[in-house]
Design a protein that fits this description.
homodimer, seven-stranded parallel sheet, three-stranded antiparallel sheet, alpha/beta, 312 residues, Rossmann fold, globular
Chain lengths: 312, 312
């Protein structure tokens, strides 16, 4: 069983962690969105990649979902006292990673090689792959103009009304080494409960990735990030509404369309199941909110079981 | 009374702090060596400037003399765990300053403007001036080849045998704004007990500074950093010996030569006084080791009194 998960930040990281726990070591590859990567204070920051890595390494802050557990904030506090920009919350331990990653990028190492080096150091046995080693910054079109993703997401706290998205440079981007191999070898592909617009779509937009998913001899299962019309975390539901689409698990299923062979929806959305289930789409209903590490493992097992059932 | 002090790191910072305490607010300007500035982990680091600023702001680590009090080390520990270079000890609070300074330098602010902004924030009433806003990196010639200063000083812990020094780019460097004005207005110039070779000589090598000192209508008083043949801190004595010069307060006096109108030597070196005192050079003997904040103030007052006496 070779599982490939596509993931953005917190929700994606949690399901990826469940999958890593459920599968034998080495049987999981996670392809992570890097569209929200940006340079800040001269440092290369990869928020989704770090959230996935910290989570799988057991280092994540379990309350916020992002950043590290037992974090301290001395550097940011000092910078702030001196008048520097503190809107992007960088903890001291987190900074240590950003400094080292940026140092290695400057000497010519790739993001994927650096990430795998860090994961080896942390004893993470899953393969964590940035979607691309090339920069593909997400821009959010809003009624206030186009904003870099972190400016929209963190600095403006998702307040501006969204009208669309642009993945800059994506046509020139290449999948990171290992991404296409992992998809070709996959016996199951899981689209984690991440934001379809700004976490999963950037991955699918990298030339080569969508065709590799479509041609993989593997069921493709999405877990809806929308539950009872709301996103568990982040602006996905707000984005759907602002784009004139009803925020629902049904809209998530339509978003991915023919790509899916299965979708996992929350028990609160069980009334949507009859309208979704077709000969082509298996619908699985469960409690899909991951509060505890145990929830992650249970949901991951249910996703894997659904895939096995679809495989027949 | 307008006092200008020339200073390097710990010893210079301590006497500058004493002078700041002894003088009315605003009557002290400190011209600080930036020859040991370097880029590390993508950050612009100014070790001597930071030591002087931290000390005058009351933020310095009183045990080490460099770095900040109540410092934490989470970022460096993380970076080190990930395989990054940890030989240069950067604390978390210190990092916050380096990040903010580097950010401002990248947007085009000068080192002197940034430094004065930080000092305003900290309530430092003395004027702290980098010797130059232009880079003048010190290279140390050794029997093992030429080394960048911090490579010699911190990474190699001053082990290589010194044969000479080079201040790269110094011919093109301009004194930072305010430096020449401060020297022209000075009623007394103090050469702090800093390393003559790598703390004071780089300052004197910036075109315009030495002539301004020579033409100032002010006594010029050095405090010897060599006491009983040893440096209180750092490699000054080792450098003298390796260059074939006896490490002594006498050699310090000869180093500065005609520039000096007064020299302060330690009581342990009182036997040197008769050989030093000439019609041109006043010698003052005192306990010149600054262990406590009170020592700094007492020594500063003695230096000022000597200057007043020379002024007549």
């Amino acid at each position: 069983m070779k599982v490939v998960a596509l993931a953005g930040g917190v929700g994606g990281a949690r399901l990826a962690d469940g999958l890593a726990q459920a599968l034998p070591a080495g049987d999981l590859a996670v392809i992570v969105n890097t569209g929200d990567d940006f340079e800040h204070l001269g440092l290369h920051i990869s928020p989704d990649l770090d959230t996935v890595c910290y989570t799988l390494a057991g280092l994540a802050n379990s309350i916020t979902g992002w950043g590290r557990a037992s974090e301290t904030w001395q550097a940011l506090e000092t910078l702030s006292t001196l008048g520097g920009p503190s809107w992007f919350r960088l903890g001291d331990r987190d900074l240590g990673l950003h400094l080292e990653r940026t140092r290695r990028l400057r000497r010519g190492d790739t993001l994927s090689v650096i990430t795998q080096g860090f994961c080896r150091q942390w004893g993470v046995s899953s393969l964590i792959l940035p979607m691309s080693d090339d920069p593909v910054p997400t821009w959010v079109s809003t009624t206030e103009g186009e904003l870099p993703f972190q400016e929209y997401f963190v600095h403006r706290q998702c307040h501006p009304q969204v009208t669309g998205f642009r993945f800059e440079g994506v046509q020139q981007a290449r999948p990171a080494p290992g991404v296409l191999d992992a998809l070709h070898a996959a016996t199951m592909i899981v689209i984690c409960p991440s934001n379809p617009w700004v976490s999963i779509d950037p991955i699918l937009a990298v030339p080569g990735i969508l065709p590799a998913i479509q041609s993989a001899a593997a069921p493709i299962i999405a877990v809806s990030p929308i539950i009872a019309g709301q996103a568990v975390k982040g602006p996905a539901a707000k984005m759907y509404a602002e784009l004139g689409i009803e925020p629902s698990a049904r809209s998530v299923a339509l978003h991915y369309g023919n790509l899916l062979s299965g979708i996992v929806i929350d028990i609160q959305d069980r009334n949507l199941a009859p309208g979704l289930a077709t000969g082509r789409l298996e619908v699985y209903i469960t409690d899909s909110i991951m509060k505890s590490p145990g929830d992650r493992l249970r949901l991951a097992r249910e996703v894997i079981d659904l895939g096995v059932r679809i495989l027949g």
